[in-house]
UniProtKB/TrEMBL annotation, chains A, B:
Alphabetized InterPro entries for the sequence: Aromatic_deC (IPR010977), PyrdxlP-dep_de-COase (IPR002129), PyrdxlP-dep_Trfase (IPR015424), PyrdxlP-dep_Trfase_major (IPR015421), PyrdxlP-dep_Trfase_small (IPR015422), Pyridoxal-P_BS (IPR021115)
Name the record gives this protein: Tyrosine decarboxylase
A Pfam family this chain is assigned to: Pyridoxal_deC
CDD domains: DOPA_deC_like
Family: Belongs to the group II decarboxylase family.
Lineage per the UniProt record: Eukaryota, Viridiplantae, Streptophyta, Embryophyta, Tracheophyta
GO biological process: amino acid metabolic process; carboxylic acid metabolic process
An annotated Gene Ontology molecular function: carboxy-lyase activity
Cofactor entry: pyridoxal 5'-phosphate
Swiss-Prot/TrEMBL keywords: Decarboxylase, Lyase, Pyridoxal phosphate
Length: 478, 478
């Protein structure tokens, strides 16, 4: 295909929208992207550019006259790709996955093509209705209690990220409590969470205006695989109650509080019967979220949130300006998802999730999850088999927390040694892993979740880590 | 091209990611989308389905086994498209535009393909750096004061929507004020806005916990084209100060408050020298936003926000958990946009904006804006030429507010007549317009902004409105 005729040649500019230009350019972009995936292993997984690299390569103002698509592709190859960290590389094991898939990608294309803004039912009924249906499908796959289904008082909604999911339920809980106790009680309302809870909750509290001294971080018990004991939580709550404070939100065991379960990562695995047990207790929860964009083959962003009573969301988040009024909304015959989220506008995100469910089917999604968990088990066994390393916490799902055991002469509990191991592995461009700190210990995190990862990639990653460890321990001995 | 071999046939399932399946399916989707645009005028602009239509058409649980891509395309055509309101149709004149373009679409494709999560610089340096560069480009196109550029203390960032842009600056202002006056002053801090300000500010106040009684809605002056007079604002502020309250945020004339300008829609027009005057006064502002996804050929979502001092954003919105720490961030040598927004995760949205700027160039973007404004002027002239109608407010940009003048016998100020006119026009499926209420009067809104709209579409829309008016006025006379 010769792409130069309509989009580049003859001085004619690309029209804002023209179906034949779109077709021609779209085909060229599909080939570019397929070629990118074909060569994805040839790039350093973690971009190796230095801060400010791109400013040196691009002009400092927008062009007055259009560039050609060819020029743009050249720039993408030469200037953009070197600055990309390749989350879809089979050698990506950092943070949590952000998995793409063919179906998810096709859904993104179609959503971008319709380019609707689905704030109210009327602005594209299919967007709202498909979202309701698909969230019911996934709730059933997860065997969530029936209160979370749209037929009851609850229902599901797609948020951009888990941060937003947590924020909207925190706001719902805050406003429910303030309606009861009066809005000047803000200074008294208390949030409880484990010290292993994601920073998203802390940020949500900051946004919601919760007083920092009213955030109770309950220490997780390392002898219980970093779970919080119910006793520790009850104790914290009793102390606050006797001080006249108002416990109102807990992120993961219930009282008269809003109880939210954040399963952003692990939720996906619970579609497999053998992992469903990790959701035991969800029947006590007011809300539950999992990110389809992490480990469910659905492109970012797609965070699924279910609530047992949608009215609390709507009371906290609805606005009803005149210019958005319409018959269907006024008659209360439809859902307007604008009232379930922070922003007004919203993309047609249910399309990609629907396409993933349709084009893979439940059984293949289960196989996908199981394969990654098996690869993580395999990695865990490799770590255990090398006495220089240790597995720090029992593995659940596809995340292995491990470290290189420091020689006894080291005083920093292995912090520098493990940092250097991570840094040298990541600097090689061959793999990308990340870290965290548990009980003061610097711990390496290896998560299997990229859609192209196979056993050979895990083996190669392990070999690299072993080789780098040998070099580092050799240095230590000198 | 025969699409059936790898993705549909032989019982083999679609692999999570496989570059040749992606290529084949991607080409099929491009053709589907180009064909959609080719036939876009054959669909009712406003979807004519009834609430609950899709539940009747789809199964109530996800399939266990994969479906074929062919089956999916059939379902999209038969079940999804009828429920889509076609924002890209040339006959779409409702709300504000959400314009797609070939370049914007290509940017969405590439962003979906990389599928990175750009919360920190390190997770894809190109995503952060391109965003900084492109926001500087657009700031220069808008001739924003140099304090808003990244080289100064300020800088730009892409938010999902204007709602989020307004929320983050409101939070920044709130926290700046509470740091100064103590966090128990929350009950005293006051927000000022015109009664024409978008409901997004009200919702942002709700989220931020601003007391509802501390939101001062200053009445706009209809003799001044619905602008607020500085006198009215000063008076409201003086009253609050003398009552011991703390004025802290104003959405569009400054005191010692955070001054935000929301130009979500009109900002785009200000890249034309003849419209830049509407930004006069921006040098006094602390923050400014415009939506590239409305009228700037960039697909949804892409809301551009600039601030004069990024530190206030970062102080209000940063978190720094261990698992996200990395050398570049710790050395303060990079921007981590996670600290400038509500969510942690973020898409590579700068790609599409960059591609729009590159593939169209500044002059063509200016022509695009001017063309729409000319079409709106043309529509305004048509309205003026028919004595049965009136233009309600002087037209700025591409929005015409107008109404059908009610016969003197009508008691509701023309509310029902104009509602019926809108309803009959929208129910025809031929055009989609929306409404608002100004000074108690039901007003029709006609916005030109879809990328395919030409003079013939405006003429046809006007003809339809005239014909429906004739029918309605005939009925009234009976």
């Amino acid at each position: 295909m010769d792409g130069s005729t309509t989009s580049n040649g003859g001085g004619g500019w690309m029209r804002p929208m023209d179906e034949e230009q779109l077709r021609e350019c779209g085909h060229r972009m599909v080939d570019f992207i397929a070629d990118y995936y074909k060569s994805i292993e040839t790039y350093p997984v973690l971009s190796q550019v230095q801060p400010g690299y791109l400013k040196e390569l691009l002009p400092d103002s927008a062009p007055n006259q259009p560039d050609t698509l060819d020029a743009l592709f050249d720039d993408i190859r030469e200037k953009i790709v070197p600055g990309v960290t390749h989350w879809q590389s089979p050698n990506y094991f950092a943070y949590y996955p952000s998995n793409s898939s063919t179906a998810g990608f096709l859904g993104e294309m179609l959503s971008a093509a319709f380019n609707i803004v689905g704030f109210s039912w009327i602005t594209s009924p299919a967007a709202t209705e498909l979202e309701v249906i698909v969230l019911d499908w996934v709730a059933k796959m997860l065997k969530l209690p029936s209160e979370f289904l749209s037929a009851a008082l609850g229902g599901g909604v797609i948020q951009g990220t888990a941060s937003e999911a947590i924020l909207v339920v925190l706001l719902s809980a805050r406003d429910r409590t303030l309606r009861k106790h009066g809005k000047k009680s803000l200074e008294k309302i208390v949030v409880y969470a484990s010290d292993q809870t994601h920073s998203a909750l802390k940020k949500a509290c900051q946004i919601a205006g919760i007083f920092p001294e009213n955030i109770r971080i309950v220490k997780a018990d390392c002898s219980m695989n970093y779970a919080v004991t119910p006793g520790a939580v009850s104790e914290a709550i009793s102390i606050d109650l006797s001080a006249g404070l108002i416990p109102f939100f807990i992120c993961a065991t219930a009282h008269d509080m809003w109880f939210h379960i954040d399963a952003a990562y692990a939720g996906s695995a619970c579609i497999c019967p053998e992992y469903r047990k990790y959701l035991n207790g969800v029947e006590e929860a007011d809300s539950f979220n999992m990110n389809a964009h992490k480990w469910f083959l659905t492109n970012f962003d797609c965070s699924l949130l279910w609530v047992k009573d949608r009215n609390y969301l709507i009371q906290a988040l609805s606005t009803n300006p005149e210019f958005l009024k319409n018959k269907a909304s006024q008659e209360n015959s439809v859902i307007d998802f604008k009232d379930w989220q922070i922003p007004l506008g919203r993309r047609f995100r249910s399309l990609k999730l629907w396409m993933v469910l349709r084009l893979y089917g439940v059984e293949n999604l289960q196989s996908y999850i199981r394969k990654h968990i098996q690869l993580a088990q395999h990695f865990e066994q490799l770590v255990i088999s090398d006495p220089r390393f240790e597995v720090v916490t029992p593995r659940n799902f596809s995340l292995v927390c491990f470290c290189l055991v420091p020689p006894t002469c080291e005083v920093d509990n292995g912090h520098k040694l493990n940092y250097d191991l991570m840094d040298s592995a990541n600097s090689s461009g061959k793999i990308f892993i990340s870290h965290t700190v548990l009980s003061g210990k610097f711990v390496l995190r290896f998560v299997v979740g990229a859609p192209l990862t196979e056993e050979q990639h895990v083996d190669a990653a392990w070999k690299l880590l072993q080789d780098e460890a040998t070099k580092l321990l050799g240095n230590v001995v000198q």
